[in-house]
Amino acid sequence: MYSFERLFRLHSGKEHLRKKRIVVPHSTEDEELSELLKLYKGNKIRTTKYSLLSFLPKNLFEQLHRFANVYFIFLAALNFVPVVEAFQPEISLIPIILVLSVTAVKDIWEDYCRFKVDHLINRLLCHVYCSTQKTYVDKCWMDVRVGDFVRLSCNEIIPADMLLLYSSDPRGVCYIETANLDGETNLKQREVVSGLPLQGVEFTPESFCSRIECENPKNDLSRFRGYIEHSSGVRIGLQSSNLLLRSCTIRNTETVIGIVVYAGHETKAMMNNSGPRYKRSQLEKRLNMDILWCVVLLIIMCLSAAIGHGLWLKNLNDPVFQVDDETSPALAGFYVFWTMIIVLQVLIPISLYVSIEVVKLGQIYFIHNDLALYNEQLDSRIQCRALNITEDLGQIQYLFSDKTGTLTENKMVFRRCSIYGVEYPHEENGKNQYYCSYALKFMYLCWCHIFNILNNSVIRSEVVPDPQLVRKLKLLCSPVVHLSDCSSGNTSTLELSYITDFFLALAICNTVVVSSPSQSPHEASEIRTPLKSLEEIKQMFQRFSFAPFSALTSHSPPQIKDSPQSRASRLFTREETGSLTFSTPPKNSTDRSDTGQESKREAGVENLNREMDSDAESPDEAALVHAAQAYCCTLRCRTAESLLVDLPGLGSLAVPLLHILPFDSNRKRMSVVVRHPLTGQVVVYTKGADSVIMDLAETPKGAEHAQEIYSHIREQTQKHLDSYAREGLRTLCIAKKVPLLEEYDVWLKDQLLAESSIENREELLLASAERLETNLTLLGTTGIVDRLQEEVPETIETLQRAGIKVWVLTGDKQETAINIAYACKLLHANDQLLTANCGSKVSGCTILKLEVQCGEGSMTDLTARVESSLGSVAGFILVIDGRTLNWALQEELKSNFLELTCRCKAVICCRSTPLQKSQVVQLIRDQLGVMTLAVGDGANDVSMIQVADVGIGISGQEGMQAVMSSDFAISRFKHLSKLLLVHGHWCYSRLANMILYFIYKNVMYVNLLFWYQFFCGFSGSVMTNSWVLIFFNLIFTSIPPLIYGILDQDTPADTLMEQPELYQAVYVPNMFWITVLDAFYQSLVCFFVPYFAFAGSDVGELSFGSPINTSALLIILLHQVIESKTLTWIHILVLVLSGSSYFGFVLLFSVLCVTCSPPTNPLGVETLQMSQPLFYIICILTIVMALLPRYTQTHILAYSDPNSHTYNVQTNPSVAEVVS
Asked: Which residue in the list 182, 402, 786, 1048 is annotated as catalytic?
């Protein structure tokens, strides 16, 4: 029994859980905290939907969400009412029980597969600390709880979200691979919580007495807020770099220990596991309307029967058979209405929904196994993540594509750079390594030998150093260089300072993790290559009146007034602090031991260089780091507190790392704050988008000459940026800042406060970063080339010919996007470019209105889409930047923007944010009512992929976030053409035809029963036994449509690829009524031919119904043969088995059943009918008369019009008229 006090504490704990989470060791002696830990969820996961007890009620409840199931359950119950009973009540239960059972078996099989995976994961073992045994013991994942200490080794999977408390790496870091979460295989660094008194010693859980307070579980993988309060009362802020996420794998670290803060379904991995995506296709939505019309037809037929029965009874005089005289004609008509509802129930296709699911699974199987969609290089095939929108692939009207990684390779190659306003074209870059000039390679190897580094990055990163830049960097190591030499030539000391800072920024302003195939990162970092001696560094500095690193001592490079002596003094000061230790060489510099030591140093560096490897979070970072390596500015090691960097002429230097301000889409830049190893000053290195950095880089205050120099640098750099953009290069600007000590101290306090904050932490960090990243000194810019993927131009041209409008939504510069658009043939030379770059909302409104007026009268939307895509007529291309797009998406300008885009052949949105991308897709989808497809490869494309009707992710170089959020995943953009034009067209055509076929066969068979009511007083009687009536649609004619929906090909794949105009298949609403009328005609023929054949005879009702049923079955099966454009042995086998099953069933039924269908007696009826020639004459005549119109329309007209397709598929009328 709980005491009142304990219940009060429990209630208080639950209230507290709503606000924040407190975590302490599970063995805590605090009773209140111990009770609080028990309120947190355990680590056992359960992704199944059902349990043994809940399966039947829950599955039945889910299936009752379908109107058709509710409808048939109602009819089955209605048939148990004696007054309206149509046939045996038990028989009416068979269809709904069969359909519910098939769906239930499918659901339970899927759930069982999930159960097996859950069971396997829950039974995995990990090492959990046991406070009673004082050691780590093996426990299943399911037994881990919040507050447990877990020890993991290299290559083990993390069982729960844990706060990192210990790492065997002496730097207090560990590396994880997040491929199971986001698909990224590059390593990510995690840090031990700072401020723990246990650093550097073996971790003992008993000594941990800190208290963790963090936010409640959230699904944001990149966000974690909280603080840890030590026993001393000191609070240390926690961030995502301290959290080890469930499902990630420990790499390159021997041992880590953490405390569990989130377990089970509260972990970020499980909160992001939403399972397969479910979307309703457009065809399924239209199907509901068709079913509604079937209900209307059913009601009309039943009302007609009810009225007819009432009139028949009213006018009946002197009946020769027994009639219920006590029931009034009106009430009898009311009863007949419900009886006819039961009799004609098959008009609503109960098995259609199940059949559609089966057909879609078959279609997905063939899409998944298409070798044309397989990427052998990546060993990757298409993934179908959404199982119910395959037909939407055949109805796309607008395609929205990202640029980088989607149209391009996202394999960056360093192409050009500009430093100090001087461009270095790197003409050999981007070419195949075998075609690079031998002289350049030889010069590069010699230059690396000068710096005691043998770097193989030419082959790895395809970066061949620019000869001019190599000559300038050689000056750092030249034995005799005087100031007069620099001032008289093209290279000044200030320029060398810019060059050195530029490559240092490339090397360290990133999140690259340095590792080795044979060594862990912390082992690699312990290899310290001896620096050049202090005397050598002093001599190098004294060769110049302005040292390369002297630029770091001021806000602006021109304000340099230090002497070489003062700089040498500072170097000695840095040595005394212990931050950096220099080895002084022997006085006799020609000693052999010195030579031997130098040789060992070179060998060590050489071996290290061959083994070192790096993992970058993006291809851009990798390209810049490799470019820095090409100039022997190499990142050797990264720790949480320092960086080991090789610099030309200086050897390896330890650079203290103070802060990393990571990249985000709002700031569009990242920065690192370091303490320079030579000057001791705090330096901020920043890289980011040119549009941002150029605004933050201000002209320094000071001498007029210095301002002229800096203005010249900015002007030249801007020219080079524009030139790079016109060439289609991705540009980044590099800048730096040396803040004053007082400024940095004030900023540091705000930064620490932001890092330790729980509420509004992201906003505070953003504001803090923006305060520091001001008054930057522009160093230069880089141009990186991103090659187009293969067959991108051909794919875009094919899609445009298919009537699909292609939009490009990118964050790149306008010039870069336009250049790529020309390269991929989205733009042609004769197209007219409309640009919208506005500085204000008023000007944006004016420009949009003017461009709409300019576009009027030039061409209609349809002509623009068809004729210009065929290359015969020029089209308008709209190019709009992010700022103008933001205004165009506002309510008052939406209509102008939409009108303008409808008149354009293509639209290119530049500098667009992820939110703007999704807003554009949503605007077009909702306002124009068109089918949209979005394709992208990165996390910034996830929002538009999820908003579009069909989202396609490309598994590329930016992880798998886009793939995990998509409906379909491909490896190359070129696969879109076959996925849409072939598989999309087939899937849509098959399902559209199959749905109409289902409606046709149900209407056709139901009308046979309806026509019979005119000859039986509308009493609800039928001319067949109830078993055949139920099984006719449920078994005898159910399998052929499935094969038809999976295997039929209305047009060969080669033809669809060669003639993309055939893609735009439109579901024609009138075809529903054409199909219904055709079914009415065939039912009339099928009923009245036997009726007139047996007129005047004494044939019984079952004998009369025998040729009708047989003819109806053969007509329905042969109707499908006529409609099929593909006939294989599978089709023929299924058709034969369907017909055989009918004949086998009715013959056995006729021979064996005596009282199977009371009150009628089917014994001997079918055997007698099938032994008479009249039976076969009636069947043949009926089949020919019923199918002749359909055969004439489908085949004879097809010979006269070779371009015609199936009757319910219509291409765009501006391209080809295909409705026969």
From this structure: 402
